[in-house]
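re: the backbone from monday

yeah here it is again, tokenized this time
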């Protein structure tokens, strides 16, 4: 039966501490839990921080900046940007986020690299890849990504070290597993391409409804929202 990969199973309930304990029980120590805090207020992030979470993901720049200002006393938070990076907002993204998961084109990567150089920053980046047909998602097609590797390898102010995968909604568990397996295979293909600087060490894939399948396929980062915070 198809499942929505953004939503946890219906029997998940309880407060944040209970939800977090359940999620953590399903995530191996080597997998990084990123709490997707988009649309939730800063007070909820503060509560999650008190429970030990240090990685938070946002997808809208202005909303994120407001929360970051309110939470400026939490100096050890790592901020992840997971939304579409618009050209007129890219400088703010580079300036205010530690991880950029949604680098979806060579043109964007070049822009981010120039801006990072101007600011003296070196954000960690994932290349967003489109492994299955989905008109609602952007990302590198596999052939275009492989062709762009030599140029991406030269971007000295971006630490390109991962792939981000968002599968189409409504896939069966078997189809989800197949999609995640393609990401693992692509990472291996890239790492065998002989690049000097660009190495894929991270796989950012899996959300509330499918993170267990993503972990089984090699995910090193999972992006969990509703399973922690409840429905939006």
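seq for it, each position gets an aa:
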């Amino acid at each position: 039966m198809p499942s929505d990969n953004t939503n946890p199973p219906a029997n998940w309930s309880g407060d944040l501490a209970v939800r977090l304990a359940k999620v953590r029980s399903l995530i191996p120590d080597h997998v990084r839990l990123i709490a997707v805090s988009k649309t939730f207020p800063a007070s909820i992030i503060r509560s999650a921080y008190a429970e030990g979470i240090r990685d938070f993901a946002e997808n809208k720049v202005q909303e994120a900046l407001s929360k970051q200002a309110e939470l400026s006393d939490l100096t050890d938070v790592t901020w992840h940007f997971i939304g579409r990076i618009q050209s007129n907002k890219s400088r703010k993204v580079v300036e205010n986020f530690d991880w950029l998961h949604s680098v979806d084109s060579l043109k964007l990567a070049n822009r981010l690299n120039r801006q990072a150089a101007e600011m003296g920053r070196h954000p960690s980046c994932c290349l967003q890849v489109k492994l299955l047909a989905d008109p609602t998602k952007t990302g590198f097609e596999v052939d275009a990504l492989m062709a762009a590797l030599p140029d991406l390898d030269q971007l000295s102010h971006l630490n390109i070290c991962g792939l981000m995968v968002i599968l189409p909604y409504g896939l069966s568990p078997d189809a989800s597993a197949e999609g995640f397996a393609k990401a693992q295979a692509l990472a291996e293909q890239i790492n065998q391409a002989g690049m000097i600087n660009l190495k894929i060490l991270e796989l950012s894939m899996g959300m509330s409804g499918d993170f267990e399948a993503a972990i089984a396929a090699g995910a090193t980062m999972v992006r969990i929202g509703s399973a922690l915070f409840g429905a939006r």
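Residues 16-229 form a domain with the TIM Barrel fold (CATH 3.20.20.10). The CA atoms of residues 42 and 69 lie 9 Å apart.
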